[in-house]
Amino acid sequence: MPEIIENFYSPIPKSVAHHYVKALSAPTLSNNIRGCSVVYGDMARLPLKVKTFIEESVVLCKPDKIHIVDGSEAENKLMLKALKEAGAIIPLPKYDNCWLARTNPADVARVESKTFICTENREEAICTPKAGVQGSLGNWISPKDYDDAIMKRFPGCMKGRTMFVVPFSMGPVGSPLSKIGVEITDSQYVVCSMKIMARMGAAVMDEILNKNVEFVKCLHSVGTPENGKIDVESWPCDPERVIILHKPALSEIVSYGSGYGGNSLLGKKCFALRIGSTIAQREGWLAEHMLILGVTCPNGTKKYIAAAFPSACGKTNLAMMTPTLPGYKIECVGDDIAWMKFDSHGQLRAINPENGFFGVAPGTSYETNPNAMATIVKDTLFTNVAMTSDGGVFWEGLEDTLDKDTKITDWLGNPWGLGVSKTPAAHPNSRFCSPAEHCPIIDPCWEDSEGVPISAILFGGRRPQGVPLVFESRNWEHGVFIGSAMRSETTAAAEFKGKMIMNDPFAMRPFFGYNFGNYLKHWLSMENRCTELGGNMPKIFHVNWFRKDQNGQFMWPGFGENSRVLDWISNRIDGVDCFEETPIGLIPSEGSLRIENLKSQINMKELFSIPKDFWLKEVADIQTYFDNQVGSDLPKEIQAQLNDLKTRVEKM
Ligand code: OXD
Ligand code: MN
């Protein structure tokens, strides 16, 4: 690491001059950070609150140097060069400014079991599970244990390293819906990724300075194992002692030991969802794990839809879909997170707080998501994908793109042969990190500071059995119940092994910043808020692209064909009478889901069947889940919805 820094800092070319950049001579700092020099940026120009945060972090982490990130292109180039020279990233000459990082193989996913919310009382953060049951709706840590966890890991953790200070905005800089953070990190990979994933740099620091806005304090260190031995020089981390801490009362995030994605790019899951959901509850809006897309119908009308699916269930594919139905156009506002607030007319409006896509690579291809493929060939930082001998990338799903002479190196850096190697070429949770503005179908309003108007909310997951392609909720309360009862097959985005059906309410299970029962109450309260403002609530739907037949084959082709489902949803938003009541909600009436010109025959009857036995069991499973996990925190309205569903299913 020190080597990287030497290469990086001597000398800083003139072209980097910026109003935050000072000459290499260290400015005089307050006593408690004497000995640690500011090698890039000017402490004197920083807002006092930022300075204090830096000083506290310096005292704790004892870095050798401080770099105040300005977000300029020149700075980014230098960072990438330094990372390359240290062997931390490999250039991918087949594309334009694209790079590959390989992590320590022990640091490849979010670590939910080591992620904690800190509040005075446990009940503020998490539900009280039934006696003897392990809670699955987040982990609580007491203020004392929080401090202890920090003091066990952070003192001196940046010795020999540079501390980077990254001011960033979640949402367009200056939008009334945006929020600001400052991430302090000792990872250049994180700085380069943050440049893609968030608006960051001098403009954000100016915003803090000029408007005196509060910011979320994010402290991150990749750490060093207790024995002092870093296993993979190019990817320092401390997998044994990873911990991700959130203290909503102080708007504070502290993350140690991992350089990977959601563990280290603290604007994403930690801020935009966990801390974000607590701010949203306080301020009366919603911070959700949702994509946002615009759909234009053949008659030219446009609607925006937000959709919550658990990690790695195709959010990016839906957000960038190429519709097969003629005359339809999809445009992408965001693929992972939505911040939604009612405007003064009671219209729900959403922004994508992010600036880029941190998408799961395997399965992304010219067939499944050509728009993502077009996005990732420029300014992209790949992590843990395989590499081709012509300087490109490869992962499971791209087999058709290979010609016979291309050699592949797998994500671990070993030679890999298609049809020969028994292990995957790319890690199942390997990622591309690309600027959203490079997406060919990015929505023209994606950066509008007032957000886009949301007409419908979709919930969904991987449900191989029993759950129809689409159904609509009977009303808002029923819709909130549907979100609370969401279940899905597990994926590789977190540390789980093997496939099982897991409850993932609102696709937020790993991301709640406060007690899920209170979160449900907050969602229920949205209806009053909207009515008081004179608006209409968005409609709520459940979709399932993943139902399988008796032979284990998917019953619905998915991807671009999902435009047929969006067409039906759009008609329902317009109030078209094209539905049939069922015990679980409203499904398309016969003939109302357009299935003309589908490549394969669809068994519509089976695709929309609602097997009584399955749903009786589903109701029982949901009840057990609520009893075990939510207990007395469950709002009575949600229990009443489950009771009503049970009665309707029993009568089938
Ligand atoms: C993600 C996730 O990275 O949900 O978006 O895990
Ligand atoms: Mn996600």
Automatic annotation (TrEMBL):
Chain's role: Catalyzes the conversion of oxaloacetate (OAA) to phosphoenolpyruvate (PEP), the rate-limiting step in the metabolic pathway that produces glucose from lactate and other precursors derived from the citric acid cycle.
Enzyme class: lyase
Annotated Gene3D superfamilies: 3.90.228.20, Phosphoenolpyruvate Carboxykinase, domain 1 (3.40.449.10), Phosphoenolpyruvate Carboxykinase, domain 2 (2.170.8.10)
InterPro entries xrefs: PEP_carboxykin_GTP_CS, PEP_carboxykinase_C, PEP_carboxykinase_GTP, PEP_carboxykinase_GTP_C, PEP_carboxykinase_GTP_N, PEP_carboxykinase_N
Cofactor list: Mn(2+)
Organism annotation: Belgica antarctica
Superkingdom per UniProt: Eukaryota
GO biological process, one term: cellular response to glucose stimulus
Pfam families: PEPCK_GTP (PF00821), PEPCK_N (PF17297)
Residue ranges annotated for the Phosphoenolpyruvate carboxykinase C-terminal P-loop domain, each copy included: 285-648
Protein's UniProt keywords contain Iron: no
NCBIfam families according to UniProt: PRK04210.1
Catalysed reactions, as listed in the record: oxaloacetate + GTP = phosphoenolpyruvate + GDP + CO2
Domain Phosphoenolpyruvate carboxykinase GTP-utilising N-terminal: residue ranges: 53-280
Subunit structure: Monomer.
Family the UniProt entry places it in: Belongs to the phosphoenolpyruvate carboxykinase [GTP] family.
Keywords linked to the UniProt accession: Decarboxylase, GTP-binding, Kinase, Lyase, Manganese, Metal-binding, Nucleotide-binding, Pyruvate, Transferase
UniProt name for this protein: Phosphoenolpyruvate carboxykinase [GTP]
Catalytic activity, EC: 4.1.1.32
Gene expressing this chain: pepck
GO molecular function: GTP binding; kinase activity; manganese ion binding; phosphoenolpyruvate carboxykinase (GTP) activity
GO CC terms: cytosol
